[in-house]
Design goal:
single chain, alpha/beta, D-Maltodextrin-Binding Protein, domain 2, 3 domains, two-stranded antiparallel sheet, LysR_HTH_N, transcription regulation, DNA-binding, WH_DNA-bd_sf
């Protein structure tokens, strides 16, 4: 029997869960709004309570031991149950209902938002979600949307922004295309490949040339202003294009091109207006989006 199992401190469990999911004390402390020493003491206290070593250090990261892996499954279930209890209890006095408008790029709207919509429907079935798929920046101050997912931080003082992740982009093509055209092994091999444009080709070349891509407008024979259409062209074997790795993870039959090429790193900002502090429906959606978008690609689509 685990010592202390009947008298654990839930704060210690939350510290363990955050550290396991974030992979480091510093990231977990930021997530929970604690100092790193405080969070470290909570994790150490839990190990003492259970008489188990839950983490071991590998380089700069903390890796779960076998005991930690087994405990993590139960703590996640406990955390989900606690969230559900809190939601049900608070819903007795203030129902979570009404419309919440979320704006994101068309690609994010099509590939990343549907999985979190399932969770939202389960937690708050009376919510109405309107997804505004748009590649321009919608004005939250004019209530064109309640929550925005964007790659730039807004500068309006009345908006709240949270950096949920430094996302990564790579270059992809369909397996069918690569079987036909060959799998490039060097940047120079890209001269003979087709590329899919996402809008203005000149702007895309201005981005790709500093990365060492020896290509020109002649490599772009097809594309679309719509990200969804351009990505579908990639999936159907028309050529190569850059894409966020979590979108690629949700797309069957695409492969990373030049897998050793360094990723393109870009921020993912979640933004809303200050009604976040007074509207339970917006707060619920905002927090769930933040939790989901912060996950690694393989975790988003593990089911």
């Amino acid at each position: 029997m685990i010592q202390g199992a009947n008298s654990f401190d839930w704060n210690h469990m939350r510290a363990f869960l955050a550290t396991a999911e974030e992979g480091s004390l510093s990231a977990a402390a930021r997530k929970l709004g604690l100092t790193q020493p405080t969070l470290g003491r909570q994790v150490t206290a839990l190990e003492a309570e259970l008489n188990l070593m839950l983490f071991e250090r590998v380089g700069r990261n903390l890796v779960l031991t076998q005991a930690g892996e087994e405990l993590l499954q139960h703590v996640r279930a406990m955390n989900a149950a606690a969230d559900q209890v809190a939601l049900v209890a608070s819903g007795q006095s203030q129902a979570v209902e009404g419309v919440v408008r979320i704006t994101a790029s068309d690609v994010f709207s099509a590939y990343l938002l549907p999985p979190i919509m399932k969770e939202l429907r389960a937690r708050a079935p009376q919510l109405e979600i309107d997804i505004v798929a748009a590649n321009d920046i919608r004005d939250l101050m004019r209530r064109e949307a309640d929550i925005a997912i964007r790659h730039v931080r807004p500068d309006q003082p009345d908006l709240i922004a949270r950096l949920v992740r430094e996302a990564r982009g790579y270059f992809y093509a369909s397996s069918d295309y690569l079987d036909r055209k060959g799998r490039p092994e060097t940047l120079d091999d890209l001269r003979d490949h087709d590329f899919i444009s996402f809008g203005n080709v000149t702007q895309m070349l201005g981005f790709l040339h500093p990365l060492g891509f020896p290509i020109s407008e002649n490599n772009f024979r097809i594309g679309s202003e719509s990200g969804v259409v351009s990505w579908e062209l990639v999936r159907q074997g028309f050529g190569i294009a850059a894409m966020a790795d979590d979108v690629a993870a949700a797309t069957p039959d695409v492969e990373r091109v030049l897998p050793d090429l360094a990723p393109v790193v870009f921020p993912v900002w979640l933004t809303t207006h200050r009604e976040l502090h007074t509207s339970r429906r917006i707060r619920l959606v905002f927090d769930l989006l933040a939790e989901f978008l912060a996950q690694k690609p393989e975790a988003k689509f593990s089911d």
